[in-house]
TrEMBL record:
CDD domains attached to this UniProt entry: SpoU-like
Lineage of the organism: Bacteria, Pseudomonadati, Bacteroidota, Flavobacteriia, Flavobacteriales
The protein's name in its UniProt record: SpoU rRNA Methylase family protein
One annotated GO biological process: RNA processing
GO cellular component, as recorded: cytosol
Keyword Transferase among UniProt keywords: yes
Record keywords, A-Z: Methyltransferase, Transferase
GO molecular function, one term: RNA methyltransferase activity
Length: 176
């Protein structure tokens, strides 16, 4: 008979070990997110896939906060993060460190993620935008590539934390 594993049977690493383990060369830039739940969920996903860092830009809520913690389940303690008031400063900083800027956005130049080849020798920064407005207009010219997730239903977009989870998983598979 199938039984669910208990927490202690999952053999997860502790926060101290997480901090020391090699991360995948992937940074997540959250651009003006409004929802603390989306921020918390992004931290939790980043922890699951050993993401290098999250940069919270603009009005994106910052830990510590009860609502972020509720979704993050402690991942704000494991995942490295910082805040940058201006997204273009974050983009410029990581571009100068050799990261390719990938905007997750529906644009006239978007490439379907299924048609994009992730190069394991590169470092990437994934930019996820505001729940209503998407990525800031002022950031668009500084982004190298725009990726879109194919959708087959009636809705025009996914929740930003769900979208982030899908894209983080695709990059984690290719970069690990």
């Amino acid at each position: 008979m199938v039984q669910k594993l208990k927490l202690e049977e999952l053999n997860r690493i502790d926060v101290e070990t997480f901090k020391k383990v090699e991360k995948i060369p992937l940074v997540i830039i959250l651009d003006n997110l409004r929802s603390m739940h989306n921020v918390g969920a992004s931290f939790r996903t980043a922890d699951a896939f050993l993401i290098e860092k999250i940069i919270l830009c603009g009005i994106t809520p910052q830990p510590p906060h009860r609502e972020i913690h509720k979704a993050a389940l402690g991942a704000t303690e494991s995942v490295d993060w910082s805040h940058e008031s201006d997204i273009n400063t974050a983009i410029s900083d990581y571009k100068s460190r050799g990261y390719e800027m990938i905007g997750i956005e529906q644009t006239t130049d978007s490439v379907m993620i299924t048609d994009f080849s992730i190069d394991p020798s590169k470092k990437y920064a994934l930019i996820l935008g505001n729940e209503v407005e998407g990525i800031s207009d002022e950031a668009l010219p500084h982004i190298d590539t725009f990726l879109e997730i194919p959708q087959l239903g009636t809705k025009h977009s996914l929740n930003v934390s769900v979208c982030g989870g899908i894209v983080m998983w695709e990059f984690a598979k290719a970069l690990k």
